[in-house]
């Protein structure tokens, strides 16, 4: 009996190690399907969703053609564009309420889908999304909106995309909605039992990158966000070279309307543009 109990005491930790190792292998091989959750189907025409909006095509440096919507300003034109970099799920259709609200404040708004999203070809990756964002910035330049007249607006995963773009092509200002400090930090928060930092292919080092961006920054977060810890978003705000305005939306979770396109988010974008321009 004692011998059997001894064997059980040895086998239990071995089994636990095997389970963790198998989980690690699964995460390593399937990680991009966990990080990127695209809505792959085609989206409707821009004009059928947003009044006056135009369907445009982005061409990336590696030869892909991506769908996007260019939304004109309503009322007084600010002569300022907002480049919206989406989070990891959905497509540009789900960002239509944000574009409508920003256009109503006089901004030209570019909504685009990454590779693999919204009927676009390709597979998403950190390097690929960086190329997609450059193509979006190129389209705005071609339409008369250079980076110095553009606010980069990133949400969640998109905060990693636009901070990388801002380090290469400094914008007028940068609005980060629900930023994480890095994808590795976020993964370690949600999977503390796995060696996430050793396994990840894509990093999105927002905290490290923001320190190189000498532009006005606003960080918007929800204090009820269970996907990106509010403390990570506040750490990004604190690391900005210029004092960043933190905007805390009380009671808002990560995907709540108040945080995706609510009045506080829109007002924060207006204040940021006014401060920068």
TrEMBL record:
Keywords: Membrane, Transmembrane, Transmembrane helix
Top-level taxon in the UniProt lineage: Bacteria
Signal peptide positions (record): none
Matching InterPro entries: AB_hydrolase_fold (IPR029058), Hydrolase_4 (IPR022742)
Bilayer-crossing regions: 12-30
Residues in Serine aminopeptidase S33 domain copies: 79-185
Short name of any one Pfam family annotated for the protein: Hydrolase_4
Name of protein: Serine aminopeptidase S33 domain-containing protein
Species name: Nocardiopsis aegyptia
């Amino acid at each position: 009996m004692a011998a059997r109990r001894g064997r059980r005491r040895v086998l239990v930790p071995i089994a636990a190690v095997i389970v963790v190792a198998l989980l690690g292998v699964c995460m390593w091989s399937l990680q991009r399907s966990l990080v990127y959750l695209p809505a792959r189907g085609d989206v409707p025409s821009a004009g059928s969703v947003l009044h006056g909006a135009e369907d445009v095509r982005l061409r990336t440096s590696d030869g892909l053609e991506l769908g996007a919507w260019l939304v004109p300003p309503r009322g007084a034109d600010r002569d300022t564009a907002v480049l919206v970099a989406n989070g990891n799920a959905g497509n540009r259709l789900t960002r239509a309420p944000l574009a409508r609200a920003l256009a109503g404040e006089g901004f030209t708004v570019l909504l685009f889908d990454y590779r693999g999203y919204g009927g676009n070809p390709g597979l998403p990756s950190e390097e690929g999304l960086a190329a997609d964002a450059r193509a979006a910035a190129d389209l705005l330049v071609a339409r008369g909106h250079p980076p110095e007249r553009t606010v980069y607006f990133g949400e969640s995963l998109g905060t990693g995309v636009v901070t990388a773009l801002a380090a290469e092509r400094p914008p007028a200002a940068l609005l980060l909605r629900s930023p994480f400090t890095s994808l590795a930090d976020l993964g370690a928060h949600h999977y503390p039992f796995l060696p996430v930092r050793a396994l990840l292919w894509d990093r999105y080092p927002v905290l490290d990158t923001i320190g190189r961006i000498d532009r006005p920054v606003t960080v918007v977060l929800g204090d009820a966000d269970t996907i990106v810890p509010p403390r990570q978003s506040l750490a990004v705000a604190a690391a900005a070279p210029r004092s960043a305005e933190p905007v805390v939306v009380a009671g808002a979770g990560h995907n709540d309307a108040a945080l995706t396109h609510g009045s506080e988010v829109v007002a924060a974008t207006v204040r940021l543009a006014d401060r920068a321009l």
